[in-house]
Design brief:
Elements lengths: L6 E7 L5 H14 L2 H4 L4 E5 L15 H14 L4 E6 L8 H7 L2 H8 L2 E4 L5 E5 L7 E5 H5 L2 E4 L2 E5 L3 E3 L20 H11 L3 E13 L7 E11 L2 H12 L7 H8 L7 E5 L16 H10 L2 H8 L3 H32 L3 H10 L5
Parallel strand pairs: 1-12, 2-3, 2-7, 3-4, 7-10, 8-10
Antiparallel strand pairs: 1-11, 5-6, 8-9, 10-11
Helix pairs in contact: 1-3, 7-9, 12-13
């Protein structure tokens, strides 16, 4: 095994539990992962995670992590033009409200960054020659970027075991993604193979999410920033840290087979022990379980998921996430972070914007 040829994945601890301490962890991780070798050109798009218009810590990319990356780019790349964004979900148009309550639009205004809802961006049809997708409609803002830095939150996931550097690109195809859950691992590999301008990862592992994430999991404070130029190596290293299976993870295997990156990696930075995450339990996710069962029946799949009836199904899923789970569990998780974590200084103002009394 040649360690010198393996992709470097930087793990950096947030050593001082304050804003500047978090910024330093981001900057150190970027430097250790040789970001300047991989971030090219003047136009940079930050693909953040904006999955929720509620505030449960660990759902969306930490705004302080985003701010640290913006400052680094603006300080060290003369004339850089930064855009950032995500897309709406298939089941709800959450992003604009998420950008408000999570402070993403405030960051954009403060630093002169363009915020983009990829679901409303101009779409360009592209032939991608994947194993599932032959062509896709890709947002123009992503295609026009010289470099895309993908900025996922480290979370477990009911469908793909974890969501990280690879899965974060699912939000780049807002039109069709809900139709491909049964073959999601190959779809994610197809998308990542085509988007060759994604050349760097800054993974937010400050406040993660375990269990039945990506939206209805349990916040988990890890105080880490992970960075690399290799999306497959990043996710493999992250899975090893989470004590989730990486050797037989279909998403990573498919991506490696298509040349997106390599599962072998060299870890640099701080020594970090395994930190087992609660495993996803799809059987305890009623909406997810029902969807997977229905999709396996061709007649029902065609009737529900390929017709306007899907909107009713999506409405039900949204109500589960935004009403039942959030009121029963999500608010308690948010309150616990605001009362017991140093990151309360990040999340208290966001929770108040979202209407929580903290």
């Amino acid at each position: 095994m040649n360690l010198f040829r393996m992709s470097k994945v930087a793990f950096c601890k947030v050593k001082k539990k304050n804003r500047q301490g978090l910024f330093k962890a981001v900057w150190r991780a970027m430097d250790l992962a040789d970001w300047k070798k991989h971030v090219k050109g003047k136009k940079v798009f930050l693909k953040i995670n904006g999955i929720s218009d509620q505030v449960v810590p660990g759902q969306c990319t930490n705004p302080w992590v985003i701010e640290a990356v913006i400052k680094k780019l603006q300080d060290e790349i003369k004339g850089v033009e930064i855009s950032m964004g995500d897309a709406d979900l298939a089941a709800s148009e959450q992003l604009d409200e998420a950008a408000r309550v999570w402070g993403f639009k405030d960051l954009a205004e403060k630093y002169g960054v363009r915020f983009v809802n990829l679901s409303r961006d101009k779409l360009v049809k592209k032939k991608i020659k994947g194993k599932i997708f032959e062509e896709l409609h890709i947002p123009k803002s992503v295609l026009d970027a010289d470099t895309v830095i993908t900025m996922p939150v480290l979370k477990s996931h009911c469908l793909t075991h974890l969501t990280g550097a690879l899965k974060n690109q699912w939000g780049v195809v807002p039109r069709v993604r809900h139709q491909y859950h049964l073959v999601v691992n190959q779809c994610i590999a197809d998308i990542n193979k085509f988007l060759s301008n994604i050349t760097f990862v800054v993974m937010d592992a400050t406040m993660c999410m375990e269990g039945n994430a990506p939206r209805t999991g349990v916040p988990k404070e890890c105080n880490l920033v992970i960075a690399s130029h290799d999306r497959v190596s990043t996710d493999t290293a992250a899975a090893d840290y989470m004590d989730l299976p990486s050797e037989d993870n279909p998403m990573m295997i498919r991506a490696e087979e298509m040349g997106v990156g390599e599962r072998k990696y060299k870890r640099v930075g701080d020594r970090v022990k395994k930190n087992p995450f609660l495993k996803p339990e799809p059987g305890k996710q009623p909406i997810f379980l029902l969807e997977m069962k229905l999709r396996k029946v061709p007649v029902i799949k065609q009737l529900i998921f390929d017709t306007p009836i899907f909107k009713f199904f999506a409405w039900g899923a949204t109500k589960y996430n935004t009403w039942w789970w959030y009121n029963r569990k999500g608010k308690k998780y948010a309150m616990d972070v605001c009362e017991n974590s140093w990151m309360s200084r990040i999340y208290k103002p966001l929770c108040r914007r979202a209407g929580l009394k903290v």
